[in-house]
Amino acid sequence: MAERGARLLVFFTSLIVLRFGGADKGSAIQEFTPFRFSVEPVDTLAVRGLPAVLNCSAASAAPVRVEWKKDGTFLNLVADDRKRQLADGSLLISTVVHNKHNKPDEGVYQCVASIDNLGTISSRTARLTVAGLPRFLSQPEGVSVRMGGSEMLSCEVMEELVPFTRWERDGRPVELDARVIQLPSGALVISNASQTDAGLYRCTIDALGPPKTTEEAELQVSADSGVEEKLETLQGPVSVAKVVGESVLLPCVMKGYPVPVIRWTFNDRSIDEGHERFTVIGGGSLQIVNLTEEDAGIYVCQADGGNMTSEIQAELTVHVPPRFVTRPSNTYAQESMDIIFECDITGSPPPTVRWMKDGDTVIPSDYFRIVKQHNLQVLGLVKSDEGFYQCLAENDAGNVQASAQLIILDLDVALPSTVPSLTDATTDHVASSPAERSGPAPSAPRDVVASLVSTRFIKLTWRQPAEPHGENITYSVFYSLDGTNRERVENTSGPGEMQVTIQNLVPDTKYTFRVVASNANGPGESSAPLTVATQLEVQVPGPAPNLQVVSVGPASVALSWERPVNGNGDIQTYKLFYSEKGQDSEQDMDVTGLSYTMTGLKKFTEYSFRVVAYNKHGPGISTDDVTVRTLSDVPSAPPQNLTLEVLNSTSIMVRWLAPPPGTLNGELTGYKLRYRKGLRRADAIEISTSQLLQLIDGLEKGKVYTVRVSATTVNGSGPTTEWIAAETFENDLDESQVPGVPSSLHVRPLVNRIVVTWTPPENQDILVRGYKIGYGIGSPHAHTVNLDYKQRFYSIDNLDPSSHYVITLKAFNNMGEGVPIYNSATTRPQSAPDPTPMLPPVGVQATVLSHDTIKVSWADNSLAKNQKITDSRYYSIRWKTNIPANTKYKTANTTSLFHTVTALKPNTLYEFSVMVTKSRRSSTWSMTAHGTTAETLPASAPKDVTVISKEGNPRMININWQPPTEANGKITGYIIYYSTDVNAEVHDWVVEPVVGNRLTHQIQGLTLDTAYYFKIQARNSKGMGPMSDAVHFRTPKAEPSDKMSSDQGLQVKPGHPTLPEHGIGSNMDKPGITGSRENHILVIVVIVSVGAFTIIAVVVGAVLCTRRSNSHQKKKRAACKSNTGSHKYKSSSKDLKPPDLWIHHERLELKPIDKSPDPNPVMTETPIPRAAQDPVEPSHQIQELEESVSTRRGVRPKIMMPFDSQPPQPVISAHPIHSLDHLHHHHHHYHLPPRGYLHHQISLRAPASPNTHLHRSPSAESVRNQPAAPEPPVAPSQPITSAELQKTEALIKEEDPPSINPPAAHIRPTHPLKSFAVPALTVSAHNPPTYETALPSTPLLAQPAPGVKTASIGTLNRARAPMPVTVPNAPDQSETSKMLDMTYETDELSEEMAHLEGLMKDLNAITTG
Questions:
Q1: Which of 186, 351, 440, 911 has its CA 20 to 30 A from that of 928?
Q2: Whether the predicted model's global pTM rises above the 0.70 cut
């Protein structure tokens, strides 16, 4: 193994030469040698005593030597004077020898061609069959037929003699046509009879020596009398198998009057008799020529005879010989490479494929593997692998072969064609050219340890070698089962990586690991071996206690058990295993409860049952087997092989066998025999017996009797056999003389016995009562044995080894003994018992065929090279799932070198081992092979589906579920269906895909007070599984109270008044209103204030719009698109928006609102969410400003101004600074940093609030769906003094974190109005979040600067908080370059702000007056 592993690196010496510099070495390449069979032997039917030829010819430019095999063994033509090889390689048998006891020429032949020092190929196999002795099994009988009717004359011969039979009428050959045909059985059918058909007929066997004929039988043709004759079936169709391209005749011969009309159907469809390949001949038989695969099926012959009808069906099976789709091709390779010979075969039934190398069968091993069912993979090539490889395919219709030559080139010779596909282990060891391998290899890796050990995987880590001698060091990990020498290799994924995880290990098993480093000069030293044991799996359930099994009927049992004491978690299901006594196969089924009634069992049969509990970790420990027998019943099948033997003219011996095993259904109590005279219905006589034979005597001479038999149990009688007829003799056999000499006597000596067989005397008219055998050493009279006259063989036992015995046989009757016949034999010598034990099978491989089928194959070293089984050995295969808790094996026996295991679980790892048994000797179990069944569709739906409403957002739900019980593979995702109509079609439901193995999903945007239905469907790599049952959920009827407050720009907390800046005109701003509602004057003041402010806003907007449109230096403002859009940019001016502004009344300064993309923000003010969805046209800015104040449904935050509800109380109360950690979003939580950076004048800015709801419509509902930030509790009745306000103001100044540098947008420019030209910072990401502008819920009281007036409401000595103005979002980063050129004139804005201040003064005068 180590040598082959090293060669995996060495062979790549030539790869660089192949790609870049190997052209100059093409002259050193060995050419492929044309070598094939021009003629191959075919199946042949030979005739005894005549010559036979098996053709074979091999074509090649080199000298070819041809040899022949018979039944897998080379023929010795030198010692056989009857067989010789012709010049072209064909085999000639001069005289075919064949008799009943000696068939030396019959068998399977194969031609083998060889070229010295190059290789060997084998031809397809051909079977030589020798026709038997020309004799008739029955004689034709004279019959009578009406004019126009049909009749059949039988000629029963052996199957191989049918081609040699023909019919004669009055001594002349019968001409066959569409009216007169010969059936495949040899019988002659005459339809539409006429007087010309009358005559004497006989059947003749020709071409097998002298012709042999039957007795003549007369066919009489009578006139039509008009008397009705019942419908009778002379010959019906029988099931038959044919090969594609052959012809078939399905007989259907009916007799009756009126003449029956015959029709044929194929797979329940009428056959068109006009079809050129389908013809009805002989009055009703169907002939099909040039068969195709589509012709296979059920054919029914329907006969209509007026008052009677008859239907007989038969199945036609069409076999297709093997045919190559892809043949193996000639291949160049180099040592240590991995190659694959492809061999794709089709045929019906599916062909079995085997590979041969130079005439020897390829035995699968670690280096020769069968992949993809038919392809041969050779790993780590060595020079001895060179030669000819053949793919041989065989099924019931024939066999074919194709060969390819493998030439292994030297490492310094470039490959002339595409390099064969390499395995991962080979590709990972790509080395440099030989010229570059001039330095030393690395030393051994250091400190190899198992950093992680689990039940089925081990992770290894190590350190770099002390002497790497280069860069780009790669590593290979070699590992094997502890105690074995066969290693496997795992390579690191890239250079320099010093860890690897070994998967698919067996729990509680020791493995040995070593690591080898490689550089450009090749592999280095190996690390010291490290032995590590995987962990034991112990998290599975224990056995289910108190398993009870009770038989409740002939085919059913009731089972019950209890929950395991140690379940190790919830029990997901129970698996019930059961098997029939004496059978190796075990079946299973899943049960969810603690009891089950099993039906469909065999009657009166003993079964064993066991139960295994399953939890999320897998199967638990099995219970002990419990055995029970089902109840008895009447037999379900009649006795077998009923035969009638006419002893004489008045008695018949009836013999039969018991019903087939498993059909008695109880204890047999006896048999009932019924017989009657004649073929028609008559009174029958019944006889009861417990024997398997019964003599019926006292019968009439020359009469036909019919007999049938049935078996009985304590439950009653079972079905009867068909009526069997026999006719008594007209006269008894002659017993007036002794019998003649037996016609033959054959002996077969063994060690301690001699088997004697014979045939009766040739004169069958003389009665034989029995036979007498005499035998002894040197004399046949030492011992005598009398035998029954029906017996034809006898075993003489208890003889001495190596002794010569003389044997005599003679027949006798009441007149005496006949003439004896003699023979002699020498018993075989006693041989010592074979002391060598049986070797276990090797090369066990598990090939996955489907999700529930694995084919297990192996090789037997105790067989010959051709792996042909010639003795009575058989193989036992056992398998189980690769789980330690599952100690129960299932087994099966076979006599071939492979076995297909079915009824397995999908996506499950199984382990297989094989044992060989010969006579009383058995081998140990072989090494295990593992195979994981393929995945298939999930068999069950996701379970435990629950729907939970999102707290604080009734329009959003969380749906949770658990994976399906029978996933049948790795779950790759789920699909959620939901609808308001549970009966709607599936395509009308809304679909939400979930990728991966997540078990929860959030659905938003639902309608309030609406019933929804949810279904979930799981998928894996094979497709979708079934849907779960619909789960009903109704959304709440209304928004929660805090949600409703948030919709109006307020945050309401029970027991706490909200701050004044939450909105203009809000009743919650007035403590008097929210409490007792007694101060109605304040309500009026609020209404008037809202109206006045609305008028002022409209006037301001109109002035701004007019001034801007008349200005000659007007420039376009940058537009910010909604982050939920497609991020496409339009050139229209309608999409432009002005920058975000904040108005400071103290300084009359406008500044851009910060949009900082700080990833870890911590917010100190409570935001009021707003939606920033769609771009706003500049021409409509004033209108939207007005709408945002009046309707509170715009896409911007509201303009907020504090109103005094009661003069004695302060306008604003300061709250502790807090963050927005409680804000929840769809995927992430954002925390905003404090943005109220305080300068020498207090200026507050609105922080940005992220919004990840990217797919909402631009409406007020989007604002409501944002969770409102709760406020800190504030005592409603506690006044706050001016000193406390100043103290709070100073405290907030101190808490401004000095470590956070404010963004550029927050740094005060030199000119107070130049900040309008500074664009806000944006975030460029794959899925950029939407940001919301949030106002501070705790605005700080600012001292008015000198020369600046502050608008106030109520008393003039109260300072006003800054008033926010509705502003648009910051533009996208991609548009920043455009915005830098779009500044606003300072004079224009100064004039507008001065005008706005005047309007604010008017508002103060109105509200305070």
A1: 351
A2: no
